[in-house]
Amino acid sequence: MLILRDIIHSLISKTKRMNAKMLVGGLLGGVTFFLLGYLLYGLLFTDAMASCTSCQRPMGEINFLLLGVGNVFMGLTISYIFSRWVSVSTFMAGVTAGATIGLLMSIGFSSISYATSTVYSTPTCILYTVIIEVIMWGVVGGVIAYWLGRK
User: Span 130-146, mean pLDDT?
Assistant: First the structure.
């Protein structure tokens, strides 16, 4: 009976550690998404993206709380996938997996948005978005995988 209790305790402890790692990885990913979003969308590609859409909010009107919540949930999504489904645990594997997920997701979402709304004014805007998102998802994937792979 004592052995069974020790096995159950070990499994619960390991699960708690994995859940904590996944949550911290998601938070790190969310912060990384937020910072990269500001750098890429807010500073480097501001003019290119401004010519792509007329519905983007000015910097002063952005709801940063909701933006942060969205970024954290995107980080949690990657962290969950890496820790539960595919066991990605090195920086370079995370960059590759993150960039691949970002490529597929951004082409899908951008194409649908262009086809069904006026979010993007030209197909070139899809290309800008895909480039930015692949960079962001790749870096975030690397950060999360590095965290998950730590001993």
Answer: 97
The pLDDT-based confidence of 13 (bands split at 50, 70, 90) is low
CB under 8 Å to 54, separation ≥6 — which residues?
118, 121
Spatial CB neighbours of 106, under 8 Å, sequence gap ≥ 6: 129, 130, 133, 134, 137
What's the average model confidence in pLDDT over 69-84?
A: 94
Phi, psi of 96 (to 5 degrees): -65, -50
Beta-carbon contacts of 108 under 8 Å, excluding residues fewer than 6 positions away, are none
For residue 15, which amino acid is it? Answer: T
Residue type present at position 75: G
Region of 87 (left: φ > 0; alpha: ψ -120 to 50; beta: rest) is left
